[in-house]
Amino acid sequence: MRKEKEILEVGKKFKKENVELEKLIKKYDRIAIFRHIMPDYDALGTQLGLYHFIKDNFPNKEVKVFGDNHVTFTPRLFQEMDKESDSWFNKPFLSIIVDVGNISRIADPRFQKGEKIVVIDHHPKNEEFANIHIVDTSKAAASELVVSLLLNFKGKYVFSKESAKNFYIAMVGDSGRFQYSSTSAHTFKIASFLISCGISLNEIYGAMYLKQIDDLNVTAYILNHYEVSPKGVAYYVLSDEVQRKLKITTERGKENVNLFSNIEGINIWCSITQDTDPKEPCWRISIRSRDYVINGVAAEFGGGGHKQASGAKITTLDELPKFIEALDALI
Ligand code: AMP
Fold this sequence. Notes:
This protein is α/β, with parallel strands linked by helices. It folds into 2 domains: 5-208, Alpha-Beta Complex (inorganic pyrophosphatase (n-terminal core)), CATH 3.90.1640; 215-330, Diaminopimelate Epimerase, Chain A, domain 1 (Roll). Helices cover 37% and strands 17% of the residues. It is built from 12 helices and 11 strands. The protein has helices spanning 5-13, 15-27, 41-57, 73-76, 142-151, 161-174, 185-195, 201-209, 213-225, 240-246, 295-300, 320-330, and strands at 30-34, 62-65, 94-98, 116-121, 132-135, 227-228, 233-238, 268-275, 282-289, 304-305, 309-314. The strands form 2 sheets. A 6-stranded mixed sheet has the order 6-7-8-9-11-10. A 5-stranded parallel sheet has the order 2-1-3-4-5, covered by helices on one side. β8 (268-275) and β9 (282-289) form a beta hairpin. α6 (161-174) packs antiparallel against α7. The chain is globular. The relative contact order is 0.11. The mean pLDDT is 96. The structure holds adenosine monophosphate. Residues 36, 40, 102, 105, 123, 125, 254, 286, 303-306, 309-311 line the site of adenosine monophosphate.
């Protein structure tokens, strides 16, 4: 495994934690990997990339992946999650949580039963609840950080094509195909390493971005109904009724948010999707920006995330004007 300057720097920064992480992975025969609810490419790709890395190097360990499956990524892109009854969690195991640092957003609360808990994340807002907490907000994707840590392990390990593929999908997803400002020399060093593991970019991009003809109806609806605020906040609203008409699920509401990413005069762009889940009925908001730091407003409206890619929620559409005004005030 190659270790270039940028990768060695990560090893140095997290030396103590990483030595401990390698020890824990070696020590535990039962390991459970978790990530956030409503998973995206980075959450699932990092979780499964790490799963394959551990299985490939320690075939006798029992490794499990937990959380909700994605409505369209599973099984097209990612394997199914494991389903275990509560009794599985009663014997000692190591919990590794990736791409999330808030307890309430971890997809399966049984991570708490882990004898040791490790968090590896690139989000700024984090709670202190783990034995090892490795957070680096400068990384474009959680997978970029995880791969860098694995490359800095002291032992000699293999990186299979399957592991590299999952990690690569994660990185492409969260860096917006290496477009977002979080993309760095380190991002490309990790991408280059993953490509050197023999993955097929053609196959990966085909699987990630191939659309159905029906998807064009969703795009058409959005282009006919979006609004732009006085300061250049573009947004579209997908009520439950519209989602049914367009035959999409709530998770898919944000899929078109980046339609507005390269339009002069549009500075911030959002999707607003009604979620009728009786546990928490709300309107889920995905916010993206080119220059403006939006995670402060996201935090004000029940969410959080990165400087240029955040999530928030409002209870009713009556709150929408206040939310758009808060974004306008940033500009
Ligand atoms: P999304 O718009 O759902 O793709 O989320 C964009 C980014 O913001 C992702 O990195 C999410 O993990 C993060 N995010 C979304 N919703 C929340 C939330 N309620 N609290 C904290 N972070 C969030």
